[in-house]
Amino acid sequence: MKLETKAKSLTGKLTIPGDKSISHRSIMFGAISHGQTKVNRILRAEDVTATIRAFQSLGVKIDDKDGIIYIQGQGFEGLKPANKPLDMGNSGTSMRLMSGILAGLEFETKLIGDASLSRRPMDRVADPLKLMGAKISGQGEACLPPLKIQGGHLQAINYQLPVASAQVKSALIFAALQTKSNQVSEIVEKELTRNHTEEMLQQFGGELTVSGKRIRIRGGQKLEGQEITVPGDISSAAFWIVAALIIPGSNVELQNVGINVTRTGILDVVTAMGGKVEIYNQTAIAATLKICYSTLKSTRISGDLIPRLIDELPIIALLATQAEGETVIADAEELRIKETDRISVVSDILKAMGAEVTPTADGMRIRGKTNLHAPHKVIDTHGDHRIGMMTAIAALLVQEGEVVLEGSQAIKTSYPTFFDDLKGLLGTNKEEGQWQ
Ligand code: S3P
């Protein structure tokens, strides 16, 4: 599709769609709990649909009535063998977290995914789950999908995570819940990562203790269905935060943004760069953010900050092209195994648009401030939603020529209303752009 260029400014209010991580987990916790779970404001996007369909294939009754999702959970024991492979589409979160659930079930399940997911390593979850007693096979050393999981009879684990990953941590929590009630698992994180699984486990009546990076969890716990309201996804809000900061004259208000502290690294970075962000109407889980165009300076992004903004790094790289000085992103080698190798794909796109970006083994160095121009080639998302959205925001700065995006469909995995929301903030009401 042809992207919008030469943006004058972004203005107005926007309610941010539901958090993807919390939406997945609402379905998962609902399915393994007893009784009804009601989910308000779930993210309507392909990744979450993959999780819903997978649990329906495992025999869970899930209904969508008047925009609310109802899940009739019957505990882990209510999950039944699926009569076809579970298709996780593009969703790494679905595949990795569900592996932890399936690891405890005494039947075989096959998990498949699209081309991008089929290139992503599953050994990070398969290895510890095998130590707990599950039988898991994938392709090659990295245990690539398709995966076969034959679960049952899990033993508690004492495990130091070799990578900072909420997905792996969460899979192990789901597996640990299925050990016997006299067994306690201990999971130690490499760095603190998003803690939605820990928080939601307690919300569903479960218990675990967290001290720093150490999590202890007892097996055999019975969870109870709940009512959940999903806050907006700060990872989706990030595109508008950056757009408002870099397009002169912008002033936007983003409502219902989830502000769990394990996710708010982008706000710390923006503040360090001199960006104007105000937070108000704050509740325990969400807030309104007001952002306006700002003069920005470079910063360093590394260490324990990385897991708090891992999904925002593509759009933060764009932000850095508009800041004075050299911004360094380091300790972010995990970016190489996301939906694409985001270090190389982001560097290539921004360089094609005239930015000074040097990819490194574990991040990027970006020197600003540069005027972005139209690339001399079509930009391809390579099936990565966040690459598509980053390119669409970068295109807004282009003053001459066209920016054409191939594979914009990928954006639907996490943010199907992205282009409508963009039009709303631009104040343009042109005919619908064609997804392609
Ligand atoms: C997620 C965790 C992160 C993140 C992903 C969603 C989650 O992955 O990149 O988009 O919901 O647990 P890792 O935990 O593998 O870094």
TrEMBL record:
Species, as recorded: Lactococcus formosensis
Lineage: Bacteria, Bacillati, Bacillota, Bacilli, Lactobacillales
EC number, as in UniProt: 2.5.1.19
BP terms from Gene Ontology: amino acid biosynthetic process; aromatic amino acid family biosynthetic process; chorismate biosynthetic process
Span of domain Enolpyruvate transferase: 6-422
Descriptive protein name: 3-phosphoshikimate 1-carboxyvinyltransferase
Catalytic residue list: 311 (proton acceptor)
Gene3D superfamilies assigned: Enolpyruvate transferase domain (3.65.10.10)
The entry's keywords: Amino-acid biosynthesis, Aromatic amino acid biosynthesis, Cytoplasm, Transferase
GO molecular function, one term: 3-phosphoshikimate 1-carboxyvinyltransferase activity
